[in-house]
Each structure stands twice: as C-alpha cells, then as structure tokens.
C-alpha cells in the first residue's frame, strides 16, 4: 500500500516566512499531527549561508548585495552558499525519511534521481558528478557540465528539512555574486539556458511530485497551508 | 544510570561526518529527545538527540572532529 503524503505550494514567498512555515510543519510532523509533506516555494532573490559556509564564497558585501536587491540569510541546512530567486523552484521534503528509505546518504541520492527524472521529462540529460552533490547538465552555451539543481538538507528528530532547488529560469547573473556551494570551477545553468522554453514552475512542481511518488512509492495529495 | 550519546545510524552511507557543534555543555540538564549536538556531512546537517532525561556528564568528541556512525560522543547521567 502506498504511503500518503501532502504537498503544499507556498508560491512566491520570502525565504524567512517560508522557513517559519517549514519549521511549523516539521514540528507537526515530528509530533505526528501532520502528514509528511512536500513543500514548494519560490523566493525573491536571497543568498543563504548553510552550516558549512565559507566567507570566501560570498563575493559581495551584504551592502552591495542589498543594492542589487539580494537579501542574505544564515540557515540551518548543510552545505555552503546558495542563491535563490524568481524562476527557481524550491522543494523541501519534510519527511520521516526512514519510512521510505534506509540511510540519509541514500535519501539524498534518491532525491537527486527524482530531479534527473524530471529533467528527463523535458529532454534534458541530468547527471551526478562524483564527489559533488546536486544535479548537473551539459550547458550548450559553454559545453561544460553545470549545476542545474542544488541540494542541502537537515535532519532533526528523524524528519528532514530543506531540500533542493531546480533552476527553471532564474537570473543567472545573480549566481555570480557567490561561489555556489563553494565549487569554484563549475558554472550554474538553468532549463531556459539549456534552450528550453521555460515551463511554468507549477508544471515542474507537478512533474516533481509524479517522479517523487514513483521513486519513493508514495501517493501525494494537495493540501493548503491553512489546514496545517 | 549512565546513558551513551551515540552518532545515529541514519547517517550511515555518508562518506565523512564532522561534529559541527555541541548545543550543550557538561553539567547541562537535558530532556530525552532534545537536540544536543549537530553533525554534518557535505550536504546533510544531522541533529543528535539526548537519549534520556538527565545531566551531561562527558563530552567525548570535540567540535570539528571526524566521527563515525555508532561512535559514542558523550554521556548522560539520568
């Protein structure tokens, strides 16, 4: 029998507000008062500093970033520096992940595979690169393997937080303000930069849910944040 | 009674786990299930929970140490 999950799409929302909601859902999941949930969102431009951040990977001062309309925030996920902005779909699975899979490392690899399968739906060949997390594609503009999906998760009381971003059509110039995830010799790309007419984020979200359910043997139904 | 604080098994499969920070110190009182330490792989932050109510009596791994799944990193007297 398939396990029931919820999905909630917060739409365009500030990172801080969305994180507050994410923590609330996480707490309810831990208490058993809410189902495991896939939480989707899109943020106005913000750079987040994970627990493993290094100052050298932030190339501009907070003042310079503010002048460019980019906020800055320290967050509780693993990983280094990340950028989020319009045109990027963020998914945060809030899950008792061991109900579906054994081992956090395996969970991360399965999440990456979900994104690879979503990209495949759009005719893009996503792949992993040994030693690097996230999902990569060949960027036709440069001919190099570039990151299209970043990943960073936290696990508290056995329930996951944070997750993945998928670059559908973000402002790639904003990524030049950081060394994303601390990886100096790799570029960032998007579905649009790879030559696709960028699909609506809601369509990519639906593809993600389909691929997630197929990967984890779940059945995910729509929920609204007001019901949590 | 003494309880061991152990790096949980769900981090199995990670290539390297570092003890990022202790959220408690020796002498602190904790409740079972409290997050008391944070460990991390390259992409995963993992919070270690107190295994019992009691007082932290020993910290056996330092912040920044590389640790293994199943390793005893501290002790609680409950």
Automatic annotation (TrEMBL), chain A:
Pfam families: LplA-B_cat. Catalyzes the transfer of endogenously produced octanoic acid from octanoyl-acyl-carrier-protein onto the lipoyl domains of lipoate-dependent enzymes. Lipoyl-ACP can also act as a substrate although octanoyl-ACP is likely to be the physiological substrate. It is found in: Cytoplasm. CDD domains: LipB. PANTHER family: LIPOYLTRANSFERASE 2, MITOCHONDRIAL-RELATED, OCTANOYLTRANSFERASE. It catalyses: octanoyl-[ACP] + L-lysyl-[protein] = N(6)-octanoyl-L-lysyl-[protein] + holo-[ACP] + H(+). In the reaction, the free carboxyl group of octanoic acid is attached via an amide linkage to the epsilon-amino group of a specific lysine residue of lipoyl domains of lipoate-dependent enzymes. The keyword NADP does not apply. Keywords: Acyltransferase, Cytoplasm, Transferase. Its EC number is 2.3.1.181. Gene3D superfamilies: Bira Bifunctional Protein, Domain 2 (3.30.930.10). Signal peptide: none annotated. SUPFAM superfamilies: Class II aaRS and biotin synthetases. Substrate binds at residues 77-84, 150-152, 163-165. Pathway: Protein modification; protein lipoylation via endogenous pathway; protein N(6)-(lipoyl)lysine from octanoyl-[acyl-carrier-protein]: step 1/2. The keyword Calcium does not apply. The active site is at residue 181. Belongs to the LipB family. The record marks 147 as: Lowers pKa of active site Cys. Residues 32-220 form the BPL/LPL catalytic domain. This is Octanoyltransferase. It comes from Acetobacterium fimetarium. It is an enzyme of class 2 (transferase). GO terms for molecular function: transferase activity.
UniProtKB/TrEMBL annotation, chain B:
Pfam families: Biotin_lipoyl. The keyword Transferase applies. InterPro entries: 2-oxoA_DH_lipoyl-BS, 2-oxoacid_DH_E2_comp, Biotin_lipoyl, Single_hybrid_motif. Keywords: Acyltransferase, Lipoyl, Transferase. Residues 2-77 form the Lipoyl-binding domain. Transmembrane segments: none annotated. Gene3D superfamilies: 2.40.50.100. It comes from the Bacteria. Its cofactor is (R)-lipoate. PANTHER family: DIHYDROLIPOAMIDE ACETYLTRANSFERASE COMPONENT OF PYRUVATE DEHYDROGENASE COMPLEX (PTHR43178), LIPOAMIDE ACYLTRANSFERASE COMPONENT OF BRANCHED-CHAIN ALPHA-KETO ACID DEHYDROGENASE COMPLEX, MITOCHONDRIAL (PTHR43178:SF5). This is Lipoyl-binding domain-containing protein. It comes from Acetobacterium fimetarium.
């Amino acid at each position: 029998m398939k396990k029931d999950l919820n999905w909630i799409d917060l739409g365009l929302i500030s990172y801080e507000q969305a994180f507050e909601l994410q923590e609330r859902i996480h707490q309810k999941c831990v208490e058993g008062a809410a189902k495991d949930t896939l939480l989707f969102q899109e943020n106005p431009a913000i750079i987040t500093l994970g627990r493993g951040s290094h100052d050298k990977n932030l190339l501009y001062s907070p003042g310079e970033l503010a002048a460019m309309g980019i906020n800055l925030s320290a967050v509780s996920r693993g990983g280094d520096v990340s950028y989020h902005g319009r045109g990027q779909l963020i998914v945060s699975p809030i899950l008792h992940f061991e109900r579906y899979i054994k081992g956090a490392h395996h969970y991360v690899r399965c999440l990456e595979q979900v994104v690879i399968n979503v990209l495949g739906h759009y005719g893009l060949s996503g792949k992993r690169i040994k030693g690097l997390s996230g999902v990569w594609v060949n960027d036709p503009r440069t001919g190099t393997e570039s990151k299209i999906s970043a990943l960073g998760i936290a696990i508290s009381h056995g329930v996951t937080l944070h997750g993945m971003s998928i670059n559908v059509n973000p402002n790639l110039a904003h990524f030049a303000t950081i060394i994303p995830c601390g990886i100096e010799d790799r570029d960032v790309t998007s579905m649009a930069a790879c030559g696709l007419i960028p699909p609506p984020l809601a369509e990519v979200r639906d593809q993600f849910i389909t691929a997630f359910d197929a990967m984890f043997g779940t059945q995910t139904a729509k929920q609204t944040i007001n019901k949590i | 009674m003494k309880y061991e604080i152990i790096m949980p098994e769900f981090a199995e499969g990670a290539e390297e786990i570092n003890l990022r920070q202790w959220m408690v110190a020796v002498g602190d009182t904790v409740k079972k299930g409290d997050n008391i330490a944070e460990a991390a792989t390259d992409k995963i932050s993992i919070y270690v929970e107190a295994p019992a109510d009691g007082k932290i009596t020993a910290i056996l791994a330092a912040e920044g140490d590389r640790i293994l799944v199943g390793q005893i990193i501290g002790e609680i007297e409950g």
